[in-house]
Every structure is written in C-alpha cells, then in structure tokens.
Amino acid sequence: MMSRRLRLGAAVALLCGATSSFALNTTTIVSSTLSPDCLQYRVVGICYWLYCSWTGCRVRTSVKVHHYVPDAVVSSYSNIGQNPWIDVQPLSAPNATAQGGGDGTTNHDNENNLAKFKNADVVGHPGGYVFGHFASASGYSCQGAGTALMPYLLSTLDTLAWRYNIPEAVYPEALIPGMREIGAHSSLNLWGAVYPRGGFLHQADDHKAAAVVAQRAGDIVTRRGQLHVYQPLLAHSRDGYWPAGALVESDASTGKWQELTPRLSNTCAVFPHSRPLTQAQQGDYAWALWRPYSCCERRGQTFLGSVEF
Hints:
The protein has helices spanning 2-16, 26-31, 36-39, 128-136, 159-164, 172-175, 206-221, and strands spanning 42-53, 56-77, 115-117, 119-124, 151-154, 181-182, 192-193, 200-202, 241-242, 256-261, 284-296, 302-308. By secondary structure, it is of the alpha+beta class. The chain has one domain. Strands 1, 2, 4, 5, 9, 10, 11 and 12 form an eight-stranded antiparallel sheet that branches. It has a two-stranded antiparallel sheet with strand order 3-8. The protein has a two-stranded antiparallel ribbon with strand order 6-7.
C-alpha cells in the first residue's frame, strides 16, 4: 500500500510540473488522471442492503462515496483534421460538408469583434484503467459513463447544427440576452453564450472562445434527445449507483474541466475562472471533462435505501 502511494505521489509530482512542451498524446492524457484535486473523493453516507441466505435475512451496510470521474476529452480547435490529441485526429478528417476552419478577421490587432470558429470533438477518456487504480486507493470507486476512445460528438458530422446553427439559432436561449451564459457582463467576465450550440461565436480571446465551444459540446452530449449528431454520454442509475446528469455551465456540482493543452494542469475548474489563460499558437485546445458520481458497494440482494451525512 505504501509503495503504491509513493508511486502515485511521484506521478502527481511529475504532472504538477508538466507544461505545454508535452505533446498531447494518449499517454499524456492517461497520466493526467492522477489528480486528487479533480478526483475530490468523499465519503458521503451509508447504503442499506437486505441480504438473505438459507439461515435467514439481515440488513447489511456499505459506505456511500462521491467523486469525480474523467468521462471524456473535449477538444476545441480551429482547423479540421487538427485535433490537438494526435492519436484521434483521423476521427475528424475533412469531408464534403466540413472543410477548412479558422477565424473571420481583418487582421487588425485592435479588432474586438472577432468572429471565431471552432470544431469540437468529444471522445471517451482513455485513462479509465489507471484512474480506477488511483481512485480505488481511497476506497470503493464509481464507474463513469464514458467508454475509452468512443466518439460521442464529432462536429464534422454535425454540419447543420454546428455550422449553420439549425435549429438552435431561434431557440429562446439564443435570442434572449442573459440566458445560458458563461460568466456575466456585471462581473466583467463574460466568456460567451452556450446557445446556439455551434462552432461560431464572437470573442476576442481565443482561449475563452475555445472554452465556450467545449462547454457547448459538453452540454450536448450530457443530454438526451438533442437535435445534433452525437451519442449521449450518460449512464443509467441503478441500485447503489447515482450517475452524473446534465452538465450546467459554471456549476461544479455537474462537472468541471481539466486543461490538457496548451498547458497541462493537475487541477480542475469551471468556466469562467480567473486563472491565467495560455493562448495556443495553432488555435487548438483540449480539456478533460470530469463529472460527479456517487455509489456504494452492493452487499445484498435488495437495496433498501441510503442516508447521507
């Protein structure tokens, strides 16, 4: 047990010192799961189970835990085929309806009304095995909804919604100022609006623009029945298992983000935040999306309920 903790501690120390000089490949992403700040492991209650055998029935208990799981890697990048996660670039190659990319600009340094366009890919986080060992060191751990390397949303296949905002351009959330916004004018920290959930927005800061697009992609895949081409990134609840629900902007209780590139971080945050923003030279960014789960070990045939402290 001590040697395992020493190994994990060494890995976290290496992660803390990581910078943008690391290429964003699968190995780097897997190592990023060793983050106690993102895990945020807590014992929150007790579950009750009815266990019956040939000798009779009795009530057993198990600990209810709550922690975050890295479900997916969300990439937000300017040019099609240039996902910063190099190992999944073939998933989003140009096609007949999605080519090129980049910004609309007059190349003036003082331009503040810059039309940005970002592609977005949501792909299952590859670090499940390593994360499972890391989380289990704290006790019983919960399973996330994501499947490693599974594409949940590729904006190159979502042309109508992503490039033309059909039909979300006429949704109330897209037309009424102040609805579903990341930040606020009153705090002088408005990053952008969640709707319409496509690749275009006006934001002079490239990092903030990419973060807004990542939030839009996460918003889509964590809901069912959206008018986009995607797969829901959701698990079904069951006895002793309470999975994450819909992602909501600026609400850490629904999910939080770990920056992977252009700067590899060992902590998680929500958008907007006040941390320093590193600009990517090629306009490509990626975050790990961590989402909250609660669960307890099954210790009987019938689940009787749970209580939280």
